[in-house]
Design brief:
With 210 residues, the chain is an alpha/beta fold. Helices cover 14% and strands 35% of the residues. It has one domain (3-204): Beta Barrel (OB fold (Dihydrolipoamide Acetyltransferase, E2P)), CATH 2.40.50.
Protein backbone atom coordinates (compact mmCIF):
# COMPACT_ATOMS: atom_id res chain seq x y z
CA UNK A 1 0.00 0.00 0.00
CA UNK A 2 1.14 3.53 -0.64
CA UNK A 3 3.23 4.60 2.41
CA UNK A 4 1.33 7.86 2.80
CA UNK A 5 -2.04 6.11 2.90
CA UNK A 6 -0.73 3.52 5.36
CA UNK A 7 0.28 6.33 7.70
CA UNK A 8 -3.12 8.00 7.31
CA UNK A 9 -5.12 4.81 7.88
CA UNK A 10 -2.94 4.03 10.91
CA UNK A 11 -4.24 7.23 12.51
CA UNK A 12 -7.64 5.62 12.94
CA UNK A 13 -8.71 3.99 16.16
CA UNK A 14 -11.69 1.65 16.29
CA UNK A 15 -12.50 1.10 19.97
CA UNK A 16 -12.45 -2.63 20.65
CA UNK A 17 -15.78 -2.56 22.45
CA UNK A 18 -17.36 -0.95 19.40
CA UNK A 19 -16.18 -3.60 16.99
CA UNK A 20 -19.32 -5.62 17.75
CA UNK A 21 -20.22 -5.10 14.16
CA UNK A 22 -18.30 -8.33 14.23
CA UNK A 23 -21.51 -10.26 14.08
CA UNK A 24 -20.50 -10.59 10.44
CA UNK A 25 -23.41 -10.45 8.02
CA UNK A 26 -22.09 -13.02 5.67
CA UNK A 27 -24.32 -16.03 5.09
CA UNK A 28 -23.06 -19.59 4.77
CA UNK A 29 -19.75 -18.57 6.32
CA UNK A 30 -17.72 -20.91 8.44
CA UNK A 31 -14.97 -19.93 10.80
CA UNK A 32 -11.46 -21.27 10.77
CA UNK A 33 -10.95 -24.39 12.87
CA UNK A 34 -9.29 -23.69 16.25
CA UNK A 35 -6.34 -25.91 15.39
CA UNK A 36 -5.27 -23.93 12.38
CA UNK A 37 -1.77 -22.47 12.53
CA UNK A 38 -1.96 -20.13 9.54
CA UNK A 39 -0.73 -16.63 10.23
CA UNK A 40 -0.74 -13.31 8.43
CA UNK A 41 1.23 -10.34 9.69
CA UNK A 42 0.80 -6.68 8.79
CA UNK A 43 3.23 -4.11 10.13
CA UNK A 44 2.04 -0.55 10.67
CA UNK A 45 4.10 2.55 11.40
CA UNK A 46 6.06 2.03 14.64
CA UNK A 47 3.96 4.54 16.59
CA UNK A 48 0.70 2.85 15.64
CA UNK A 49 0.69 -0.90 16.16
CA UNK A 50 -2.01 -2.87 14.37
CA UNK A 51 -3.34 -5.90 16.19
CA UNK A 52 -4.41 -8.86 14.07
CA UNK A 53 -7.07 -11.17 15.44
CA UNK A 54 -6.48 -14.00 12.99
CA UNK A 55 -3.52 -14.39 10.68
CA UNK A 56 -2.69 -16.04 7.39
CA UNK A 57 0.52 -17.23 5.79
CA UNK A 58 1.40 -16.96 2.14
CA UNK A 59 0.19 -14.56 -0.54
CA UNK A 60 -2.78 -16.70 -1.59
CA UNK A 61 -4.90 -15.85 -4.58
CA UNK A 62 -7.15 -12.81 -4.83
CA UNK A 63 -10.50 -13.45 -6.47
CA UNK A 64 -13.46 -11.51 -7.82
CA UNK A 65 -15.65 -14.56 -7.27
CA UNK A 66 -16.89 -15.25 -3.76
CA UNK A 67 -16.71 -18.91 -2.67
CA UNK A 68 -19.91 -20.51 -1.41
CA UNK A 69 -18.63 -21.19 2.11
CA UNK A 70 -15.71 -18.85 2.81
CA UNK A 71 -13.53 -19.17 5.88
CA UNK A 72 -13.79 -15.78 7.60
CA UNK A 73 -10.72 -14.16 9.12
CA UNK A 74 -10.51 -10.76 10.74
CA UNK A 75 -7.97 -7.98 11.15
CA UNK A 76 -8.28 -5.62 14.13
CA UNK A 77 -7.06 -2.03 14.20
CA UNK A 78 -6.09 0.02 17.23
CA UNK A 79 -4.44 3.28 16.33
CA UNK A 80 -4.34 7.00 16.98
CA UNK A 81 -7.74 8.64 17.32
CA UNK A 82 -11.30 7.71 18.21
CA UNK A 83 -13.02 6.97 14.91
CA UNK A 84 -16.41 6.94 16.64
CA UNK A 85 -16.14 10.73 17.06
CA UNK A 86 -17.74 12.15 13.86
CA UNK A 87 -16.04 15.55 14.21
CA UNK A 88 -12.60 13.97 14.36
CA UNK A 89 -13.34 11.44 11.64
CA UNK A 90 -14.73 14.02 9.22
CA UNK A 91 -11.78 16.31 9.97
CA UNK A 92 -9.41 13.51 8.98
CA UNK A 93 -11.30 12.44 5.84
CA UNK A 94 -10.95 13.83 2.31
CA UNK A 95 -14.54 13.03 1.37
CA UNK A 96 -17.87 12.30 3.03
CA UNK A 97 -20.69 11.36 0.69
CA UNK A 98 -23.68 9.14 0.06
CA UNK A 99 -23.42 6.75 -2.86
CA UNK A 100 -24.94 3.65 -4.37
CA UNK A 101 -22.77 0.62 -5.13
CA UNK A 102 -23.07 -0.43 -8.77
CA UNK A 103 -20.75 -3.41 -8.83
CA UNK A 104 -17.44 -4.81 -7.68
CA UNK A 105 -14.80 -3.60 -10.12
CA UNK A 106 -11.63 -5.31 -8.96
CA UNK A 107 -9.36 -6.71 -6.27
CA UNK A 108 -5.80 -5.80 -5.46
CA UNK A 109 -3.26 -6.37 -2.72
CA UNK A 110 -0.98 -3.41 -2.04
CA UNK A 111 0.68 -4.62 1.18
CA UNK A 112 -0.25 -8.24 1.76
CA UNK A 113 -3.85 -7.45 2.69
CA UNK A 114 -6.49 -8.05 0.01
CA UNK A 115 -8.45 -4.95 -0.95
CA UNK A 116 -11.66 -4.82 -2.96
CA UNK A 117 -12.77 -2.05 -5.31
CA UNK A 118 -16.35 -1.05 -6.08
CA UNK A 119 -17.87 1.26 -8.65
CA UNK A 120 -20.06 3.75 -6.77
CA UNK A 121 -22.44 6.44 -8.03
CA UNK A 122 -22.24 9.57 -5.85
CA UNK A 123 -25.69 10.79 -4.80
CA UNK A 124 -25.06 13.46 -2.15
CA UNK A 125 -21.78 15.12 -1.18
CA UNK A 126 -21.19 16.38 2.36
CA UNK A 127 -17.44 17.03 2.25
CA UNK A 128 -15.15 17.27 -0.76
CA UNK A 129 -15.85 17.81 -4.45
CA UNK A 130 -16.50 14.17 -5.25
CA UNK A 131 -19.18 13.54 -7.89
CA UNK A 132 -20.26 11.22 -10.69
CA UNK A 133 -19.07 7.61 -10.61
CA UNK A 134 -15.99 6.83 -8.51
CA UNK A 135 -14.07 3.81 -7.29
CA UNK A 136 -14.38 3.11 -3.57
CA UNK A 137 -11.73 0.84 -2.13
CA UNK A 138 -12.42 -1.36 0.87
CA UNK A 139 -9.65 -3.05 2.81
CA UNK A 140 -10.40 -6.77 2.94
CA UNK A 141 -11.64 -9.26 0.39
CA UNK A 142 -11.44 -12.83 -0.85
CA UNK A 143 -8.20 -14.76 -1.01
CA UNK A 144 -8.86 -18.23 -2.35
CA UNK A 145 -11.49 -19.77 -0.08
CA UNK A 146 -10.91 -17.22 2.66
CA UNK A 147 -12.70 -13.93 3.31
CA UNK A 148 -10.56 -11.36 5.10
CA UNK A 149 -12.54 -8.66 6.89
CA UNK A 150 -11.09 -5.60 8.63
CA UNK A 151 -12.81 -5.29 12.03
CA UNK A 152 -15.38 -7.77 10.64
CA UNK A 153 -16.71 -4.99 8.44
CA UNK A 154 -18.76 -6.81 5.73
CA UNK A 155 -17.87 -6.15 2.11
CA UNK A 156 -20.05 -3.65 0.27
CA UNK A 157 -23.07 -5.05 -1.54
CA UNK A 158 -24.05 -4.12 -5.09
CA UNK A 159 -27.34 -2.25 -5.27
CA UNK A 160 -27.13 -0.90 -1.72
CA UNK A 161 -26.54 2.71 -0.67
CA UNK A 162 -24.11 3.83 2.02
CA UNK A 163 -22.71 6.90 3.68
CA UNK A 164 -19.01 6.80 2.84
CA UNK A 165 -16.13 8.42 4.73
CA UNK A 166 -12.95 8.07 2.71
CA UNK A 167 -9.34 9.02 2.11
CA UNK A 168 -8.20 9.53 -1.49
CA UNK A 169 -5.25 7.58 -2.89
CA UNK A 170 -4.04 9.42 -5.97
CA UNK A 171 -1.76 6.63 -7.22
CA UNK A 172 -4.73 4.29 -7.62
CA UNK A 173 -7.40 6.95 -8.20
CA UNK A 174 -9.67 5.43 -5.59
CA UNK A 175 -11.26 6.42 -2.29
CA UNK A 176 -10.45 4.10 0.61
CA UNK A 177 -13.24 3.90 3.17
CA UNK A 178 -12.76 3.79 6.92
CA UNK A 179 -13.61 0.33 8.29
CA UNK A 180 -16.95 0.08 10.12
CA UNK A 181 -17.60 3.84 10.53
CA UNK A 182 -16.91 4.77 6.92
CA UNK A 183 -19.52 2.59 5.23
CA UNK A 184 -22.86 3.03 6.94
CA UNK A 185 -25.61 1.22 5.05
CA UNK A 186 -28.71 3.31 4.29
CA UNK A 187 -31.99 1.44 4.48
CA UNK A 188 -34.61 4.20 4.15
CA UNK A 189 -35.08 7.89 3.33
CA UNK A 190 -35.54 8.88 6.96
CA UNK A 191 -32.20 7.36 7.96
CA UNK A 192 -30.55 8.97 4.94
CA UNK A 193 -31.75 12.42 5.98
CA UNK A 194 -30.61 11.84 9.56
CA UNK A 195 -27.14 10.87 8.36
CA UNK A 196 -26.90 13.89 6.09
CA UNK A 197 -27.83 16.23 8.94
CA UNK A 198 -25.49 14.48 11.39
CA UNK A 199 -22.46 14.61 9.11
CA UNK A 200 -23.15 18.11 7.80
CA UNK A 201 -23.03 19.21 11.44
CA UNK A 202 -19.85 17.17 11.97
CA UNK A 203 -18.32 18.87 8.92
CA UNK A 204 -19.17 22.32 10.29
CA UNK A 205 -17.60 21.32 13.62
CA UNK A 206 -14.82 19.13 12.23
CA UNK A 207 -11.58 18.74 14.13
CA UNK A 208 -8.70 18.62 11.63
CA UNK A 209 -6.20 15.89 12.31
CA UNK A 210 -2.68 17.21 12.80
Amino acid sequence: MNDKLIKEMNKIEIPRELSERSKIGVEKAKRESPGSNKKWYIFAAPAFAAALALFIAGPGLLSNNSPENPVIKTVEYSNAFDVSNPNMLVGWADSVFIGKVVEQSGTKSLAGLPETQFKVVVMDTIKGDIKGTVIVNQQGGYEGNELILVENDPLLVSGKSYLFITKYLKDENWHTLVPVYGDIEITNDSQKQELIEKYQKAYQEQIPFE
